[in-house]
Amino acid sequence: MQNLEIAYLMLLRPKQWTKNLLVFAALLFVGGFHDSGQTLLALAAFAAMCLVSSATYIANDIRDIDRDRRHPRKRMRPIASGNVRVPAAAGVAIFCLVAGLALGFWIGPAAIVMIVAYLVLQIAYNAFLKQIPVADVFTIAVGFVLRAVLGAVAIDVRISGWLLFCTGALALLLGFSKRRNEFLTIPEANSTRESLAHYTRSSLDILVAIFAGASAMCYGVYCLESETAKKYPGLIITSIFVFYGIARYVLIVFSKDEGAEPETLLYRDRHLLLSVVLFVVSAVLAINGLEVPFITS
What are the tens digits of pLDDT across the range 135-173? Predict the structure, then answer.
C-alpha cells in the first residue's frame, strides 16, 4: 500500500512544483507578505498552479506512455512502469484540473485567464510544439512567465517588464541546459524527443551562454530601473546572489554536463541552495527598508 501511495504521489511530480514558486515573486517584491489577504491569494494561486500543472503532467504521461517506456529515466514514471493504471491516472488528472480551475475562479477573473492560458500553452506544447527545436524551449519559458503574471494578478498588482524578461531568460537558460544534457548523455534521446535531432552541441552551448547573460542583465536592470528598485534601492544587494547563482549553474552545466533536472540540482548543490536562500532574505530586508548608503533611488 505504501508503494502505491508513493506511486500516486510521484504521478503528481511534486518536485516540479518548485517551478510554481514564481507565483510568489510579485508578493515578495511588493512586500505583500505583510498583508494576510494578499498572502492567502498568493498561496491559493500557488496551489491552483500546482494542481493544474500536475494535471498536464499526468495527461502528457498518458499520451507518451509508449515513448516514455523507451526512455532510460522516464520509463520509471508511475504510468510507464505500470505502477499506476491509465484509468486511475486519468481520474487523478481530472480531479486536479477541476480543483485547480475552481481555485482560479475563487481568486478572480484575471487569475482564471492566466491558468487557462497556461493550459492552452501546454496543450499546444504536447500536441506539436515540443517537436520543434527552439520553439519547444520557448514554450516552456512562456509557461514560467505566466506563473509570474498569475502571482501578480492574484494579488492585483503590476509587475515590472524587466522582471518578466528576467524570468523568461532564466527559464530559457534552464530549458536549453536541459536539452544540452539530454543531447550529451542520453543516446536514445533522439527517438524519444524529436526536437533534439535538430540541435548540435555547439548551438546548445551558445544558447546556454546567451540566456545566462541575458538573465543576469535583465535582473541587473530591474534592480536599478524598475519602480520597485527606485522605491527600495537596497534591492540591488539581491543581484549579488542572482549573479552568483547563475554563474554557479553555468559552471555545473559545462563542467559536469548536468542540467537535466534543475529542481533536483537546486537541492543537491549547496551553493545554489544558499544563493536562493540569501536572495530571499536580502529581498525581504530590502523591501523592509534596508538602506545602502552609496545607492540612490
Answer: 999 999 999 999 999 999 999 988 888 889 999 999 999
What's the grid cell of residue 204? 546548445
- Please state, for a pLDDT cut of 70, what percent of the chain lies above it: 92
| pLDDT tens column, 172-218 | 999 999 899 888 877 655 555 677 888 889 999 999 999 999 999 99
As a three-state string, the secondary structure of the chain is CHHHHHHHHHHCCHHHHHHHHHHHHHHHHCCHHHCHHHHHHHHHHHHHHHHHHHHHHHHHHHHCHHHHCCCCCHHHCHHHHCCCCHHHHHHHHHHHHHHHHHHHHHHCHHHHHHHHHHHHHHHHHHHCHHHCCCHHHHHHHHHHHHHHHHHHHHCCCCCCHHHHHHHHHHHHHHHHHHHHHHHHHCCCHHHHCHHHHHCCHHHHHHHHHHHHHHHHHHHHHHHHHCHHHHHCHHHHHHHHHHHHHHHHHHHHHHHHCCCCCHHHHHHHCHHHHHHHHHHHHHHHHHHCCCCCCCCCC
Tens digit of each residue's pLDDT (9 = 90 or more) over 57-67:
998 888 878 77
The C-alpha cell 489577504 sits at 37
Q: What is the CA radius of gyration of the chain?
A: 20
Cell numbers found for residue 69: 517506456
Rounded to two decimals, the pTM is: 0.86
